[in-house]
Predict the 3D structure of the following.
Amino acid sequence: ALRLKSCRFMGFVDVRPFLEKASILAMTSSSEGFPMVILEAANYGVVPVAYNISHGVSHLIDNSCNGLLIKPFDQKRYIRELSALMSNSEKLGMMSEHVKRSAYKYDIRNIAEKWLSIINEVKNEKS
């Protein structure tokens, strides 16, 4: 059904060259916590298409804005939505810009400020 010409498992590799060329992250996991792969891909503007299987996934993806959330394990819908996105370069481009912006809130500078704020708050409460 997939008519793949080749498939190669590469083991542990630096993913940056792949993300630089990619447009879409097709994530078909059956379970996830907080999937860092979505954030890693988002830094390159790679749009995630994922099953809505956890709060972590739905926290990172704003459906139809910076990615697509699919009802868990609805394969026909996943294929339909993925195919539609692949054939709509305008929508894909818009979502790519949105996913880059959404990843910024997890930038080290933003996260560090939040951690420092929490640490100082706890420190002040104990004083």
About this structure: The longest helix spans residues 108-126. The two ends are 65 Å apart (CA to CA). The chain has a mean pLDDT of 94.
